[in-house]
Amino acid sequence: MDDWKMDFINAQARLPHWLSHLIRPRLIFLPGWWLNPLGAWAYLHLVFIGPGLVDAPLAVRRYIIGHEYGHIQSNHTILHFVYWCAVLCFLAAVVEQMPVLGISSCLLLTISLSLILQPHLARKREYQADKIAALVFGPEVALQGALWMADKTGMMNDEFRCARLEHLGWKR
């Protein structure tokens, strides 16, 4: 896990996030019983690594770190945070019968949900995260890691995954 942490620190040094001086991004390794062992996610300033990835090859480790840090770097994780804040505000408005808070939180929910759920924007966020992985660790490393992940997760026939691989330089 020290290798993961060093690569994560290196990614942040190569491409600092604008909030890093306030909140330092961190890696969290999920327990062995986790349902999706080959998953990795970013939320706010945290990157979660599934237990099946801990011993992944170097290129895979760097791709995952670069990709998930790319979501943080591109502020994708803040969008999800805004959505959940709006949900809580809406619930508070309903419980406390506060119409102004209810209307404003409904508006915020609508905007954030439309940004999160629009397929072309979701795809764009994944392309951006892949691009940052390639920028931080090199295009060859990003492609090798992405290919390994696609193979191990059974996604080699997924059209969107193949499009992402092609953006990284893969030839079918």
Give a verbal description of the structure.
This protein has two domains: 2-75 and 119-167, Metalloproteases ("zincins"), catalytic domain (Zincin-like, 2-Layer Sandwich); 78-117, no CATH class. Helix content is 65%, strand content 7%. It has helices spanning 2-14, 58-73, 76-96, 99-117, 119-137, 139-152, 159-167, and strands at 26-29, 40-43, 46-49. It has a three-stranded mixed beta sheet with strand order 1-3-2. The mean pLDDT is 89.
β-strand percent reads: 5-15%
CATH architecture of the largest domain: 2-Layer Sandwich
Mean pLDDT: 89
**CATH superfamily heading of the largest domain:** Metalloproteases ("zincins"), catalytic domain
Radius of gyration: 18 Å
Termini separation comes to 33 Å
Number of helical stretches of at least 4 residues: 7
The description of the largest β-sheet is: 3 strands, mixed
Order of helices and strands: HEEEHHHHHH
Keywords:
172 residues, mainly alpha, 2 domains, 7 helices, 3 strands, globular
Helices and strands in order, then pairings?
Elements lengths: L1 H13 L11 E4 L10 E4 L2 E4 L8 H16 L2 H21 L2 H19 L1 H19 L1 H14 L6 H9 L5
Parallel strand pairs: 1-3
Antiparallel strand pairs: 2-3
Helix pairs in contact: 1-2, 2-5, 2-6, 3-4, 5-6
Summarize the structure.
The chain has 172 residues and is mostly helical.
